[in-house]
Design a protein that fits this description.
The complex is a heterodimer. By secondary structure, chain A is an all-alpha fold. The longest helix of chain A is centred in the N-terminal third of the chain and has 31 residues. Chain A is globular, with a radius of gyration of 16 Å. By secondary structure, chain B is of the alpha+beta class. Helix content of chain B is 42%, strand content 18%. Chain B has 12 helices and 13 strands. In chain B, the strands form 4 sheets. In chain B, strands 3-4-2-1-7 form a 5-stranded mixed beta sheet, covered by helices on one side. In chain B, strands 12-8-13 form a 3-stranded antiparallel beta sheet. A 3-stranded antiparallel beta sheet of chain B has the order 9-10-11, with no helix packed on it. In chain B, helix 4 crosses helix 5, helix 6 crosses helix 7 and helix 10 crosses helix 11. The chains are: A mainly alpha, B alpha+beta. The interface between A and B is large, with 44 and 44 residues.
């Protein structure tokens, strides 16, 4: 079960959707911001790399939605990307090489990353503000605390939030 | 202004701030002990979207503390606190034993986990943010640290190579894994030139800064099989390495055998319970012979098995590649 429409299964929400939303915050949001920073510098190789990181984040978040437990070692992630039929895996396999990448390569990579990130966001039942900003930091922490309260009510152990990142 | 203050000012200018502004906003958070700028900005990379990463070593901190963020306008400052002697304690664990390869001195032991290895990378290029703060390590210890980081980068190459080799023997397309392998090789070459791995997105910048030959970059990124990889490794001074003999296959991350009464199951990484025990691991050749290449690739792809580098066997192989040895 990778995505749900309301009414949500509370266990799915607390054990799959919430960690996936956190992967989105820690890995996808930040990498999308990295794309923008690299584009501003016209640093196309770094922009392609940031797009790759964003796609890896989306791929991992979708694994978490599908039930993946905990941190995914990078070697295992590469294997899964190599062998998976998921659209994000295909997008990663088709990314242009970052070494020597130009504006067009970076544009295509960024578009693939933004499309995958938007699709993931729309499959998540909660929207978490951009955490690494003055405006979003404390609201994000508040959402984390609310999720902990829900987990406690359902008899689940507290989450180590740093687990849910690449 | 001291040399380190100048380096810190130049790094901070890249994100539009100054040491004075940093101290003004950080206040007592930054004066709890020796404080250092670390990460991409300290290593000379970074762009206007980069965070300012700081490590502070403070008396009374019992262990590495979770990161604390504060903001200067749109700029994120990420502060991590450590016990006062934490860096010294990590450095004291680094092995003296090493082997001189064509790429430089490599440690013959791997005493640090992933977290401390990442911290060690950051400390090698850490810049004090206050006058009179000594560097985290002297030149001699930095050489020892770099030997350890080079070994860690080599282990990553062997792991990526063995993984690509195992999938390459099946009917599945291993192209993506050969690209990963090429990246690991370039990361190793960057580490050998004094630029150990930092954030993945800086790999092209790190390779460029390290002055890696364009021909090596092209060949690494065009790699499509084991023969290509073996040739590139031979060029770096590592002849006749067999990655699969330097690795084992073990139970996948998050998997476990589960017994419920008389029934036996195994828990998969995706949280399902499958009937029977987990697939058996062992030396790569043994698993390949038992399961065949296609099934081995499937078990790897499903996360039921994982590749683990045998560090002892790798140390022995590296010793045989010693320059003049």
């Amino acid at each position: 079960m990778t995505a749900q429409a309301p009414p949500y299964d509370a266990l799915w929400f607390a054990t799959r959707a919430a960690p996936a939303a956190w992967v989105y915050v820690l890995d996808v949001q930040s990498s999308i911001a990295d794309i923008e920073a690299a584009e501003a510098d016209e640093d196309w190789p770094t922009s392609v790399e940031a797009a790759s990181e964003a796609l890896h984040g989306v791929f991992y978040a979708r694994l978490v939605l599908a039930g993946y437990q905990g941190k995914c070692p990078r070697d295992e992630l590469a294997l899964r990307v190599c062998l998976s039929d998921a659209p994000e895996a295909a997008a990663l396999r088709e990314l242009p090489d970052s070494f020597g990448a130009g504006r067009d390569d970076a544009g295509r990579a960024a578009e693939a990353a933004r499309r995958a990130a938007a699709a993931l966001e729309s499959d998540l039942p909660i929207t978490v503000p951009v955490i690494r900003t003055a405006k979003g930091f404390f609201p994000s922490i508040r959402i984390g605390a609310d999720i902990e309260a829900l987990r406690s009510r359902l008899g689940l152990a507290p989450i180590d939030w740093m687990t849910w990142q690449l | 202004m001291t040399e380190s203050s100048l380096i810190a000012e130049q790094a901070l200018a890249r994100v539009g701030t100054t040491l004075e502004e940093l101290h003004k906003h950080g206040g007592s958070l930054l004066t709890a002990g020796p404080a250092y700028l670390v990460g991409s900005l300290a290593q000379g990379f970074g762009n206007r979207g980069s965070d300012v990463d700081l490590h502070i070593f403070s008396p009374g901190v019992p262990g590495p503390a979770p990161p604390y963020l504060f903001f200067i306008g749109a700029l994120t400052v990420d502060v991590e606190h450590f016990p006062l002697s934490y860096a010294d304690d990590v450095l004291a664990r680094l092995p003296e034993a090493g082997v001189v390869t064509k790429l430089g001195r490599m440690a013959l032991d791997v005493p640090l986990g992933a977290g401390d290895t990442a911290r060690l990378t950051r400390w090698c290029s850490a810049v004090p943010i206050a006058r009179d703060t000594p560097p985290i390590m002297d030149d001699e210890r930095r050489q020892t640290a770099m030997a350890c980081l080079l070994r860690s980068a080599f282990t990553a190459v062997v792991s990526a190579w063995a993984t690509a080799e195992l999938v390459g023997r099946s009917r599945r397309d291993a192209g993506h894994l050969w690209r990963v392998c090429g990246r690991a090789l370039l990361s190793l070459a960057g580490a050998a030139a004094g630029y150990p791995p930092i954030g993945r997105k800086w790999l092209p910048a790190r390779v460029a800064r390290a002055g890696i030959a364009e021909e090596l970059v092209r060949s690494a990124m065009a790699m499509s099989g084991s023969a290509d990889m073996a040739a590139l490794m031979a060029g770096l001074g590592f002849d006749a390495l067999d990655p699969t003999s330097l690795c084992r296959l073990e139970g996948g991350t998050g998997t476990a055998d589960v017994r419920v009464g008389r029934e036996r199951f195994h828990l998969t990484a995706l949280g399902t319970l499958e009937a029977g025990r987990r697939p058996e691991g062992g030396p790569c050749a043994e698993v390949l012979a038992r399961s065949g290449p296609d099934e081995t690739a499937r078990l790897l792809g499903d996360g039921l098995l994982r590749v683990v580098v045998d560090e002892g066997a790798l140390s022995a192989a590296l010793t045989s590649c010693e320059v003049g040895g």
